[in-house]
């Protein structure tokens, strides 16, 4: 997690060390039950990513980790960096939709670079919308699932990216908690990559 530069507009270079860490991350999550269920679902839909395991890993690496530019043509971002790590652009915090990353920042940088300013909404202990500042920059609302595993977030977000990114949202229910996951892609050099993915707290109906 120390390989990313939060400030958009600063060139990022993917080192050999970072490539090894990305491969290790993908290897770890591909050995989980959720990954197997994800692969089985893609296979049932005859999705091209599900041709075999290596094809899936190759495409996951591309859509999540392929570098692209959010500012002036500089390679300064990726889907994973934006969604899971968080970025700073135009004097605002962008992305950062992972509870564990939020927890690490709050515990390690509390009273210095990170200031949690309270929650806006919570639902069933499953999803939360919060406000905070990081490195002096404010995020007025950010949402994430709470207590979920990295592979749950990764594959849930990927599923919505693959099947619902051109719709009004990806509607799911987790333990009775309805949520809509918003997905935006990022088109770069003829590639369709993850731009951002994040959950919303839906209004409960009787």
UniProtKB/TrEMBL annotation:
Cofactor annotation: Mn(2+)
Name of the protein this chain belongs to: Endoribonuclease
Annotated organism of origin: Strongyloides papillosus (Intestinal threadworm)
Annotated PANTHER family: PLACENTAL PROTEIN 11-RELATED, URIDYLATE-SPECIFIC ENDORIBONUCLEASE
Keyword Cell membrane in annotation: no
Gene Ontology molecular function: hydrolase activity; lyase activity; metal ion binding; RNA binding; RNA endonuclease activity
Similarity section: Belongs to the ENDOU family.
Subunit description: Monomer.
Domain (EndoU) ranges: 1-203
């Amino acid at each position: 997690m120390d390989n990313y530069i939060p400030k958009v507009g600063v060139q990022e270079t993917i080192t050999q060390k970072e490539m090894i860490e990305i491969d290790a991350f993908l290897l770890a999550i591909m050995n989980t039950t959720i990954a197997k269920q994800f692969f089985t679902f893609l296979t049932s839909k005859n999705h091209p990513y599900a041709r075999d395991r290596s094809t899936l890993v190759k495409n996951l690496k591309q859509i999540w980790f392929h570098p692209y530019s959010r500012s002036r043509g500089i390679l300064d971002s990726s889907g994973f960096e934006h969604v899971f790590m968080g970025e700073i652009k135009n004097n605002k915090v962008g992305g950062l939709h992972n509870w564990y990353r939020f927890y690490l920042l709050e515990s390690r940088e509390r009273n210095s670079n990170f200031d949690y300013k309270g929650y806006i909404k919570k639902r069933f202990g499953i999803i939360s919308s919060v406000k905070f500042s990081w490195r002096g920059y404010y995020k007025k609302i950010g949402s994430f699932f709470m207590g979920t595993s990295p592979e749950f977030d990764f594959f849930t977000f990927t599923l919505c990216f693959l099947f619902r990114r051109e719709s009004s949202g990806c509607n799911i229910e987790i333990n009775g908690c309805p949520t809509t996951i918003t997905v935006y892609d990022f088109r770069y050099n003829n590639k369709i990559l993850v731009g951002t993915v994040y959950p919303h707290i839906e209004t409960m109906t009787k």
